[in-house]
Amino acid sequence: MTTSDFRKYAHQFADWMADYFENVERYPVVSQVKPGEIKSALPKAPPQKGESMDAIFNDFNRIILPGMTHWQSPNFFGYFPANNSMPSVLAEMLTATMGAQCMVWLSSPAAAELEEATMEWLKEMLGLPASFAGVIQDTASTSTLCAILTAREKKSGYEINSKGFSGKERFRVYCSEHAHSSIDKAVKIAGLGLENLVKIGVDADFAIRPDELEERIKSDIVEGKTPLCVVAALGTTSSTAIDPVRKIGQICDKYNVWLHVDGAYAGTALALPEMRWIADGLELADSFVFNPHKWMFTNFDCSAYFVKDPQSLIQTFTISPEYLKTSADDQVNNYRDWGIQLGRRFRALKLWFVIRSYGLEGIREKLRLHIGLAHKIKEWVLSDPRFELLAPVLLGTVCFRMTLPGLDEERINRLNEEFLNRVNNTGKAFLTHTKLNGKYTIRMSIGQTETREEHVVKAWELIVDEAQKIIYTIS
Amino acid sequence: MTTSDFRKYAHQFADWMADYFENVERYPVVSQVKPGEIKSALPKAPPQKGESMDAIFNDFNRIILPGMTHWQSPNFFGYFPANNSMPSVLAEMLTATMGAQCMVWLSSPAAAELEEATMEWLKEMLGLPASFAGVIQDTASTSTLCAILTAREKKSGYEINSKGFSGKERFRVYCSEHAHSSIDKAVKIAGLGLENLVKIGVDADFAIRPDELEERIKSDIVEGKTPLCVVAALGTTSSTAIDPVRKIGQICDKYNVWLHVDGAYAGTALALPEMRWIADGLELADSFVFNPHKWMFTNFDCSAYFVKDPQSLIQTFTISPEYLKTSADDQVNNYRDWGIQLGRRFRALKLWFVIRSYGLEGIREKLRLHIGLAHKIKEWVLSDPRFELLAPVLLGTVCFRMTLPGLDEERINRLNEEFLNRVNNTGKAFLTHTKLNGKYTIRMSIGQTETREEHVVKAWELIVDEAQKIIYTIS
User: Fold this and answer.
1) Residue A445 has pLDDT above 90, yes or no
2) Which 398-417 residues of chain B touch chain A by CB within 8 A?
3) Is residue A269 part of a domain?
4) What is the mean pLDDT of chain A?
5) B80 Cβ contact list (under 8 Å, min separation 6)
6) Whose CB among A7, A46, A70, A180 lies 3.0–4.6 Å from B121's, allowing a Cys bridge?
């Protein structure tokens, strides 16, 4: 491909991109293909000779696009959003072109220093403790793993890094029974053992019970175990429940336990002064993660990880082979030592584009819109006897189910599973599910960048319509 | 930003991208900024109100661009390349726009199935064992960590995952003293302890000595330790030395040790039938990693990780919370269970664009060009008494130094450090260094997608010129 070919196709793709943003609502939100359908449409063998970009792009539109689930549709209400935005995508065009690998300062000084600067910005935007230092990770899975590993090393005097487990550690990690599966994964990877992850019960709002947490810590100590880390959820995945950070922090302080706060989704809400209460006590945390790629309009992946004591993070991960040494090492942040991977993309650029393009006011406006829409749905759920609200609505996510008098719980669960499938099979909206107190729960998460009232109104009409159809069938 | 604003800027950025590819040689290859210079040019506080894209893009050009090290310059000869290509960048435009989060099949079926298909293609292109199954990871650091964790779990009957280390394991990992620092990092993360990473001596060509490896394994067994994993380097970072995979594989087989082959850089060379000898015995490996983002013209990050027994990988990482369950789970690959992170970008698309656009023939042509150019430099080094070759040239990387009669080794080391700084400070080329047998070694790695003979000729002229200047100063 020559640069003039590239120029031609880059313009063609630029139009495709703008068209996509204009037309994304027309695609089925969740892909309607069957397992194996895409793969069977692809040639089994790689081509010997190069093919034209026209042929490749044609296949992209013909084969790949129908197999995509459109996360950037304003009718995407599944999981948590992984929203991007037009300014973020523009930045990605530059990042992809420069293709810099930003492992050390020298390998792209601007990437290292912009990362430092944007992490400082985020601290101010979210009202995070001034003592925190930030670094961009790929995902909250990685950030949480970094937290647990750093806790492990700090507690062991960095001896597990050097000598391995002696078998005498008997470390324990605590989180609520509603905490994210990435904590289970991190505990396994770190060699702590899943049976040493203590799942604490929750209150009626699905938030951790600090009294039970303290009891478990105390009884573990009596049994000769060492409480290592508590992971508090600032917004659980199932229902966005808010664990009481201050109370947990005081317990952690008392027993000298690392407190990691996982605000992967909800952290962005701290940009709103009226929502800061959810993180009351955050200054007691040793580490905190939230994902700008979830609800801050920044392309996946971009996870902002903050630590109170960056030296402990660096000491956990530092390596210094000759081939990576540079004369600037003493004066700069070499982010290779702030996490697991050596290689790093230039992720700060898109975040910088987003923050500058929206401004703090623009970001707040979007968040307030989304939260307001979630509260509208909550009202609709509460005022309609065919539906039941299953968790408090604090942010942009609503947990509900349809219900019918006279049916037992098992039947209602199956009914809701069918109901969710029907809604999703229309392709007009995409919602996902969880279980709360054994109840099959529909989750509707509002946070895609372009979701406005009209989308939520239409989605609710669809939901009511599909529910009514099921009710007719049964009655 | 409206979609019509976006369209306007996307076209403007498309031109910037094409211009960048046309003009990248005009930028200093390595950024000439001083530590702190970029950060001090950035505003300390985030903006309250949104700013115009013109202002942001202007600051990008004014502040950020001078702070970039241009990895995609054909005069970039540092580290190993992290090369992209125009077809890959086109794919990134689509990926960024769709912004799909591809953690499970349902969250984008095309991403999961294209990943499976491209991994099959790579197996055929590189002549990998048919029994391997592949998955895309972000970096070789992560792939190697996955290998060591899987080895740990398989050997412990998955008991470390469930119960944590008992202290009785006494696992040992082996690699050459020239293996990559990511192995040190992985051994620490996995809780094995750095002192249980046994660094085996190398032969005159910097390849691991299999006799010494077997001796160490045997003596470890005598001491009651359990050999867990050997990491063989297919191309060490310092000098691209090739560890003898077949001999190592036979030893691993004999002592029931997991063999992981790290071909992060050199793996791409297996696309050349005449280079397949470097991986002779690869069918004995349990896992293999190579990075298409290094030498296969695919944007960072894209690391291809292959395992013989994918079930052991999945069993190591599987999680199954209710909120991630889908009805397709039994019929598809859910790649969330094939590695550490839950969230995953759609990385297969760029790889598919590259393979189709170049074809196997186009990729082979580039590789042969790069290897041929490295051999030219080798000849120039060998025929010039001012230089000394310090390692065999097998692929695209040449290790050499300048030398002067009558100087002791320490003086020559300092001389070469100064020499390298002078070359890099011209901004006309970028090379990095390592140490081989205590000698400060200049590494010149040829692998950027657009590097042609003219770039190598000019770089060599620059090298000779700067060397001669130093010689004048000293004499």
Assistant:
1) yes
2) none
3) yes
4) 97
5) B237, B264, B265, B294, B295, B397, B445, B447
6) A46
Please choose, from the candidates B80, B460, B362, the residue with its C-alpha nearest in 3D space to the C-alpha of residue B238.
Answer: B80
- Other CB atoms within 10 Å distance of the CB of residue A277: 9
> How do residues B236-290 score in pLDDT, each as one tens digit?
999 999 999 999 999 999 999 999 999 999 999 999 999 999 999 999 999 999 9
What is residue B255's predicted lDDT score, i.e. its pLDDT? 98
Question: Which of A345, A373, A408 is where one domain is finished?
Answer: A345
Q: Which residues have a Cβ under 8 Å from the Cβ of A4 and sit 6 or more positions away? A: B18
Query: What is the C-alpha separation between A309 and B464, in angstroms, rounded?
Result: 47
* A contacts of B36 (beta carbons < 8 Å): 113, 331-332
* A301 neighbors A347 (Cβ within 8 angstroms): yes
Residue A250, token pair as written in the block: 């005081």
Asked if residue B417 is part of any domain, the answer here is: yes
- Do B155 and B246 belong to one domain? yes
d(CA A238, CA A438): 12
Q: What angle do CA A154, A160, A162 make, to 5 degrees?
A: 110
Chain A residue closest in CA terms to B102: A69
Distances, alpha carbon B467 to alpha carbons A319, A357, B198, B423, in Å: 31, 48, 39, 9
Low-confidence residues of chain B: pLDDT under 50: none
Of B68, B191, B317, Cβ closest to residue A100: B68
Tell me the C-alpha to C-alpha distance, in Å, between residue A397 and each of A75, A77, A351, A369, A393: 14, 9, 24, 13, 6
**Is residue A231 within 8 Å of A185, Cβ to Cβ?**
no
Spatial CA neighbour of A430 closest among A89, A146, A29: A29
Residue range of the domain that includes B254: 100-345
Question: Are B325 and B426 in a shared domain?
Answer: no
* B187 Ramachandran zone, left/alpha/beta (phi>0; psi -120 to 50): alpha
Contact criterion met (CB < 8 Å) for B93 and A10: yes
Q: Are residues A363 and A470 in the same domain?
A: yes
| Residue B117: how many other CB atoms lie within 10 Å | 20
A197 and A280 share one domain? yes
The pLDDT assigned to A318 comes to 93
Amino acid at B319: I
pTM over 0.90: yes
ipTM above 0.95, yes or no: yes
Q: What residues of chain B lie within 8 A of the CB of A139, using their CB?
A: 341-343
Quote the CA–CA distance of A3 and B19 in Å, as a whole number.
8
Look at residue B44 and tell me if it is in a domain.
no
